[in-house]
Write a structure and sequence with these properties.
Structural class: alpha/beta
Shape: globular
Helix content: 40-55%
Order of helices and strands: EHEHEHEHEHHHH
CATH superfamily of one domain: Toll/interleukin-1 receptor homology (TIR) domain
Strand content: 5-15%
Distance between the termini: 46 Å
Number of strands: 5
Radius of gyration: 17 Å
Number of helices: 8
CATH class of one domain: Alpha Beta
Length: 204
Amino acid sequence: MAKLTVDQNAVFVNIPYDDGFRGLYLAYIVGLYQFGLKPRVTLGIPGGNRRLDRILDLIQSCPFSIHDLSRVQLDRTPPATPRFNMPFELGLAVACAKLAQNPQTYFLFETKKRRVQKSLSDLDGTDPHIHGGTVVGVMSELCNAFARQKARPTVPGMMKAYRRVSAQLSALTENAGASSIFTARVFEDICVAAKIAADEVYSK
């Protein structure tokens, strides 16, 4: 088995891919770049037997992971079904953190207080970061989660970068020939824009 290369600035981001989460998805990407970190997501990983192996490799290649468990409700598309991908990938990350030779840190994010204690009681003792379902909330809780990072962005600065990248979303999606921002190509283009925005905000 080939040895995994660990990027010390990489963060595995485990979040819902749906239009209702569009703003928070962008907030996580832009916010992480403010700390000099690089978000990594499962977009672009193909299906089939190898998908799980590749998700595990991705998690293990990142010293940090973020898991947003906001989507606990049933979806509206028949048959009504809860979303299991986020807690499943959280479980993989917890196992990796326990078994990995390299230190790994995972963070829980949620919209509502005390909901994780009910939906996932096995994680009692792990304090979730409650963002309230807002972009500002995500930025604020990223500051708390990564308080030990050398970079010290401010929430107003993070919001300034967020607005800059948000204004480019339509063009980035159109340039990629995509109907959604939740594609591998658009994700990569958002990352480039987020890195530029971070450099611009803190270069003055």
